[in-house]
Design a protein that fits this description.
mainly beta, 2 helices, about 10% helix
Length: about 160
Amino acid sequence: MRNLNPAMISELQKPENSPIELYQIFLDEGTYYLAGYDADIFFYDENNSPQLYEAVGISRTAIRTNIDNRVDQCTLTLNNVTNRGSQLLASTDLVDKQVRVLKVFLNLLDDPANHILVFEGFTDEPAISKETLSLTVKSRLDTLSTQVPRRRYTRSCSWKF
């Protein structure tokens, strides 16, 4: 374990040094702006317009990445304690909808450039229980319009006959 001085420990524990994840879920009837935080957050949307991100119980799994033939993915989990997720799933097709996961810091919310795009993908496999609504989000690295380093993201054999 590292030995840190008390000043360093207090600086690390400040709320502005804790990143917050923001989620943009693009549906046909509108976009959901959600914050994985205990209070609503004002930040910017995809068009750099000010936007309120609603504080909800949302989390995600680690982003599973590899260089094999599998597609990168993660799973979003929303609390369903008010049955809002059940109503959403019943009224909306949640398959193949774009999702963006952003990381921001509390003391840097005044500029739309102050974010990190953690993951971007499309929803697949919605599942609901009494407690949670979960969505698998898969990357679209296999689409033809995406330009990526060829040697790293290719089929098993890169040689042509």
